[in-house]
């Protein structure tokens, strides 16, 4: 008989509609009852815990790190852990959990696009799928996954790709690791988790700013971010990893003065790599880290966690080594780059 811990943190899945808008008002026990009406779990025991009652857009880094600590403790005492969360920051929080995950117990994060009191809510079915995946013995060792719209997606490389549709999440370069529906729990494939990069109980992360690329971007935001206290930078790059000439010049200067730079794609799919002279190739030559298929928002967390052990003036090469080693283990970049 397996044991699952269900951690409720708020989000649309736990919201009801009021005259002022949607508000979180549903606890873990009620969420579990709604999921069990979709499909039972046999002899599996589910322990419910209310962790917080926060809308996804209101989650901050200290709150996400507190959830990491809560999940880490739950993993050590259960056969699987399920987390309900708001969808606005779900891809980031799930990735942070993946950065900290160790052990065989699966962790599954889920949520909903429609509130609990909607005439046709999607939350109960999503939660049922998450619980069934976590309870499946074959899911041991699958790491951190997201259950949404019958699909089981890896937390690493996942993105929210639709604002309102029920199938709001996808992992464009990885695809579903499984499905849970009327046909049962089906395990297609999943890679071994890369192992934890976040191993200590942090209460906050170093400041890392995202520098967006757009037509006419002059790179001045790089200097402003560093002056404001950013210890690392993420370039949300064009195409396969390019930036405007002004941004490239500013990033090269940042790298020279000890500020790590990580490059991620703004396109929504595909891996970044340094191909073009004057753009990505120059950044790669100067030591910028290329984040493979991670979104800029996941790359930001990766760099922040890699910076956490460093003093105020980081060892840029050591930070890059931590990032690239983890990215290789996660299958985000080639084994040898």
Question: What labels would you give this structure?
Answer:
337 residues; alpha/beta; Rossmann fold; 2 domains; four-stranded parallel β-sheet; 9 helices; EC 3.5.1.1
Question: What does it look like?
Answer:
The active site is at residues 12, 87. GO terms for molecular function: asparaginase activity. Its EC number is 3.5.1.1. The chain has 337 residues and is an alpha/beta fold. It folds into 2 domains: 3-187, 3-Layer(aba) Sandwich (Rossmann fold); 208-329, Rossmann fold (3-Layer(aba) Sandwich). The chain has 9 helices and 16 strands. It has helices at 28-38, 61-75, 90-100, 123-135, 220-227, 245-256, 280-285, 296-307, 316-329, and strands at 3-10, 15-18, 21-24, 45-54, 80-84, 107-110, 144-148, 151-154, 159-160, 169-170, 178-181, 184-187, 208-212, 232-237, 261-265, 289-290. The strands form 4 sheets. An 8-stranded mixed beta sheet has the order 4-1-5-6-7-8-11-12, sandwiched between helices. The protein has a 4-stranded parallel beta sheet with strand order 13-14-15-16, with helices on both faces. It has a two-stranded antiparallel ribbon with strand order 2-3.
């Amino acid at each position: 008989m397996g044991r699952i811990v269900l951690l409720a943190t708020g989000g649309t899945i736990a919201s009801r509609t009021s005259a002022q808008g949607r508000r979180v008002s549903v606890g873990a026990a009620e969420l579990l009852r709604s999921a069990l009406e979709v499909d039972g779990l046999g002899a599996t025991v589910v322990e419910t815990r209310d962790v917080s009652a926060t809308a996804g857009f209101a989650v901050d880094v200290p709150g996400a790190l507190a959830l990491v600590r809560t999940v880490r403790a739950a993993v050590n005492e259960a056969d699987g852990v399920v987390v309900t969360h708001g969808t606005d920051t779900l891809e980031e929080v799930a990735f942070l959990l993946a950065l900290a995950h160790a052990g065989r117990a699966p962790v599954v994060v889920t949520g909903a696009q429609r509130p609990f009191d909607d005439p046709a809510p999607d939350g109960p079915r999503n939660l049922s799928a998450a619980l069934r995946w976590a309870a499946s013995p074959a899911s041991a060792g699958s790491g951190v996954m997201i259950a949404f719209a019958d699909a089981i997606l890896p937390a690493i490389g996942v993105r929210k790709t639709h604002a309102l549709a029920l199938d709001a999440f996808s992992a464009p370069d990885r695809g579903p690791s499984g499905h849970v529906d009327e046909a049962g729990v089906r395990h297609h494939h999943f890679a071994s988790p890369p192992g934890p990069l976040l191993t200590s109980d942090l209460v906050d992360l170093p400041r890392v700013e995202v520098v967006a690329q757009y037509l006419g971007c002059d790179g001045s935001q790089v200097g402003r971010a560093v002056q404001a206290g950013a210890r690392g930078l993420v370039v949300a790059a064009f195409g396969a990893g390019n930036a405007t000439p002004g941004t490239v010049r500013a990033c090269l200067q940042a790298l020279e003065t000890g500020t790590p730079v990580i490059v991620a794609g703004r396109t929504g799919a595909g891996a970044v790599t340094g191909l073009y002279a004057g753009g990505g190739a120059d950044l790669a030559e100067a030591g910028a880290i290329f984040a493979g298929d991670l979104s800029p928002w996941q790359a930001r967390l990766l760099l922040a966690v890699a910076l956490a052990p460093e003093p105020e003036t980081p060892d840029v090469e050591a930070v890059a080594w931590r990032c690239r080693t983890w990215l290789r283990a996660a299958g985000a970049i080639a084994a040898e780059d």
